Amino acid sequence: MPETILIVDDEPDVSDLLVYNLQKAGYKTVTARDGNVALQKARDEVPSLIVLDLMLPQMDGTEVCRHLKADSKTAHIPIIMLTAKAEEVDRVVGLELGADDYVTKPFSPREIALRVKSVLRRASGKTAPAEILKFGDLTIDIAKHEVTLKGKVVDLTATEFKLLATLLERRGRVQSRDRLLTDVWGYEGDVDTRTVDTHMRRLREKLGKVSDYVETVRGVGYRFAEVP
């Protein structure tokens, strides 16, 4: 069965372009033109991924994202945001709310298809090592796609999970932002490295005191301490 993508955009030309290219890439598509309809379709269809425009009538994309992540039925669904270049603040808010990625308008159809494929791959956990990683009270169970801290489950998005697993697997070694974009996000080329910083900030907030072991190497990237 093809994976279902929910496309949320009130511009018919943009929506039709996304539908055509994602169907061409082998996905099933469902569309919504406003935030309220998007929430209902997300609950009814439970799609594999949502492409969400930030500028929507009735309810903007960040509010839609907030509702999706607060609902246990839809919280696990990866979200790619569509933003205009002038919407940097909203884009950062969306990432902090749990969106997995963003694409800036105008975009190329090929870029959208690649981003969707990359986010779905991360969400499935196919690129993660098949093992259990431990660091003090922190445990990452790759097979279960679960992180626990002192026995309590830490609620992470698919991207946050892959980012943490990658850093912990390579503990003691500095990972540049560009390297993380390639290995965690699956991107190569000219991509805004602030994406890494936004996700890292959110990840640190969820890790509590363990975040002290996630070191920032100024001007380079990040490193997970070698020992607790």
Could you please describe the fold and organization of this structure?
This protein is α/β, with parallel strands linked by helices and 228 residues long. It has 2 domains: 4-124, Response regulator (Rossmann fold); 132-224, Winged helix-like DNA-binding domain superfamily/Winged helix DNA-binding domain (Arc Repressor Mutant, subunit A), CATH 1.10.10.10. It is built from 8 helices and 12 strands. It has helices at residues 12-24, 35-45, 61-70, 88-97, 109-124, 158-169, 177-185, 194-207, and strands at residues 4-8, 28-32, 49-53, 79-84, 101-105, 132-135, 138-141, 146-149, 152-154, 175-176, 214-217, 221-224. The strands form 3 sheets. It has a 5-stranded parallel sheet with strand order 2-1-3-4-5, sandwiched between helices. Strands 6-7-8-9 form a 4-stranded antiparallel sheet, covered by helices on one side. It has a 3-stranded antiparallel sheet with strand order 10-12-11. Strand 1, helix 1 (12-24) and strand 2 form a beta-alpha-beta unit. Helix 1 packs across helix 5 (109-124), helix 3 (61-70) runs parallel beside helix 4 (88-97) and helix 6 (158-169) crosses helix 8. The longest helix has 16 residues, at 109-124. It is globular. The mean pLDDT is 87.
Task: Compose a concise summary of this entry.
The chain has 228 residues and is α/β, with parallel strands linked by helices.
SSE topology:
Blueprint: E1 4-8, H1 12-24, E2 28-32, H2 35-45, E3 49-53, H3 61-70, E4 79-84, H4 88-97, E5 101-105, H5 109-124, E6 132-135, E7 138-141, E8 146-149, E9 152-154, H6 158-169, E10 175-176, H7 177-185, H8 194-207, E11 214-217, E12 221-224
Parallel strand pairs: 1-2, 1-3, 3-4, 4-5
Antiparallel strand pairs: 6-7, 7-8, 8-9, 10-12, 11-12
Helix pairs in contact: 1-5, 2-3, 3-4, 6-7, 6-8
